[in-house]
Design brief:
The structure holds two protein chains of two kinds. By secondary structure, chain A is α+β, with helices and mostly antiparallel strands. Chain A has a single domain (about 5-90), classed as Phenylacetic acid degradation B (Ubiquitin-like (UB roll)). Chain A contains two helices and three strands. Chain A has a three-stranded antiparallel β-sheet with strand order 2-1-3, with helices on one face. Chain A is flat, with a radius of gyration of 20 Å. Chain B is mostly helical. Chain B has a single domain (about 1-210, about 225-240), classed as Up-down Bundle (Ferritin), CATH 1.20.1260.10. The radius of gyration of chain B is 17 Å and the shape is globular. The longest helix of chain B is centred in the N-terminal third of the chain and has 29 residues, at about 30-55. The interface of A and B includes residues 28, 31 and 43 of A.
Chain lengths: ~90, ~250
C-alpha cells in the first residue's frame, strides 16, 4: 500500500468546539479516508464531525527553527491576561 | 413466528462471522478496523433477534443455544452470507448486496408490530446505511480502478449474482410474519435494492448479468459446503467448553 496517500484527521467532539487533530491514516481518496477516519477514530462516540486533510497539504514549522520561532515570546509576559482585577460579580471567566 | 426471526438472526450472525474472519488479515490497518466494526454491527443485531426468537419459541433456548448448538441443517440463513470471503472484491460486493437489501428492510420494519424488531430496526437502518456507503465506495473504486481490480470485481459479480434472488424470497414462516405485520414483505424491496445496486454498478463501470440461475435453499437448511466449515470453527469453543462464561 506504499502509494496510498496519507491523511490527517480532525474531529469535533461536539457543537461549539473546534475540530482537533487526532491522528492520521491512509486512504486512496478523500471519501475512503473519511470512511476510515470514522472507523479508526470514532469507535467510542468521540465525535460529531470529521475533517480529513491530505497530509501533503500541511506546511509545518521546522523544529530546527524553534528557537527563533517561539523563544521571542518568552519575555513578553504582558501579553498574558494576568494584570487585570476581575470584579467578583463577573464570576468565572 | 420465531422461525422467521431465526432466519434473520442467522443471516446476521453468519455474515458477521464471515466479516470477522478478516480481523488481522485486511489489506490495511484502516480496513482491519472497519471490517470487524461491520461484523459487530451484524452480530449485535443477531443477538437481539436470537433472544427474541428464543423467547417466542418458548423452549428455553437462549442466544448461545441458538448460535452455538444447532447443526448446519438447522441454520436458515440465505446462501449469500455464507459465501467465502474470497478476495476484497468479493467481500465488499457481498456486503453491498446484503446491506442494499437490509437497509430498506429495516426501514420498513420500523413500523413492525413487534417491539424487539422495532428496536433492532432503529439501530440497523443506520448501520446498513453505512455499510452501503463503505462497501459501495470500494466496489466503485475496484470496479473502476486498475486492470487487475476491474478483473477481480467482474469475477465477484459473476460469482455472487446468483445469490441475489434468495434475498427477496419469503419462506412460509416469513410470509406468516409478514402477514402479521411483524416483518416487512421481502419481494416489495426489490426496486429499492436495484436502485442502489444499479447506481453503484454504473459508477463502477460494471454490468449485472441478467441470465443468472438463482441459487437457493438456505431457508430450508440446504447449504453450500462453506457453511459447515464456518460453523465448525465458530462453534468449536462452545462445544469444547459448554456453558463457559467470561
Amino acid at each position: 500500500m506504499g502509494e496510498t496517500p496519507l491523511w490527517e484527521v480532525f474531529i469535533r467532539p461536539r457543537n461549539g468546539l473546534a475540530h482537533k487533530h487526532v491522528g492520521s491514516l491512509h486512504g486512496a481518496d478523500a471519501e475512503l479516508a473519511l470512511s476510515a477516519a470514522r472507523d479508526v477514530y470514532t469507535r467510542r462516540g468521540e465525535g460529531g464531525s470529521i475533517w480529513v486533510v491530505p497530509s501533503a497539504a500541511i506546511t509545518a514549522s521546522d523544529p530546527a527553527h524553534a528557537d527563533e520561532m517561539f523563544d521571542p515570546t518568552a519575555d513578553k509576559i504582558y501579553r498574558h491576561p494576568t494584570f487585570y482585577d476581575i470584579p467578583d460579580d463577573v464570576g468565572h471567566m | 413466528m420465531h422461525e422467521a426471526l431465526l432466519e434473520l438472526a442467522d443471516d446476521h450472525l453468519i455474515l458477521g462471522h464471515r466479516l470477522s474472519e478478516w480481523c488481522g488479515h485486511a489489506p490495511m490497518l484502516e480496513e482491519d478496523l472497519a471490517l470487524p466494526n461491520m461484523a459487530l454491527d451484524c452480530i449485535g443485531s443477531a443477538r437481539t433477534l436470537y433472544a427474541r426468537a428464543g423467547e417466542l419459541e418458548g423452549a428455553g433456548r437462549d442466544e448461545d443455544a441458538l448460535a452455538y448448538r444447532r447443526g448446519e441443517r438447522a441454520f436458515r440463513n440465505c446462501l449469500l452470507v455464507e459465501r467465502e470471503n474470497g478476495d476484497f472484491a468479493q467481500t465488499m460486493l457481498r456486503q453491498l448486496m446484503f446491506a442494499a437489501f437490509m437497509e430498506p428492510y429495516w426501514h420498513a420494519a420500523l413500523g413492525s408490530t413487534d417491539e424487539a424488531v422495532r428496536g433492532v430496526a432503529g439501530k440497523a437502518t443506520k448501520e446498513m446505511g453505512y455499510h452501503i456507503r463503505h462497501a459501495g465506495e470500494w466496489v466503485i473504486r475496484l470496479g473502476d480502478g486498475a486492470p487487475e481490480s476491474t478483473l477481480r470485481m467482474g469475477r465477484a459479480v459473476e460469482e455472487l449474482a446468483p445469490y441475489a434472488d434468495e434475498l427477496f424470497a419469503s419462506s412460509a414462516a416469513a410470509r406468516a410474519a409478514e402477514e402479521a405485520g411483524v416483518l416487512p414483505e421481502r419481494e416489495a424491496l426489490r426496486p429499492a435494492w436495484e436502485a442502489v445496486m444499479s447506481d453503484v454498478m454504473g459508477q463502477a463501470g460494471l454490468a449485472w448479468p441478467d441470465d443468472v440461475w438463482p441459487q437457493t435453499g438456505g431457508r430450508e437448511g440446504r447449504h453450500t459446503e462453506a457453511l459447515g466449515h464456518l460453523l465448525a470453527e465458530m462453534q468449536s469453543v462452545h462445544r469444547a467448553h459448554p456453558g463457559a462464561a467470561w
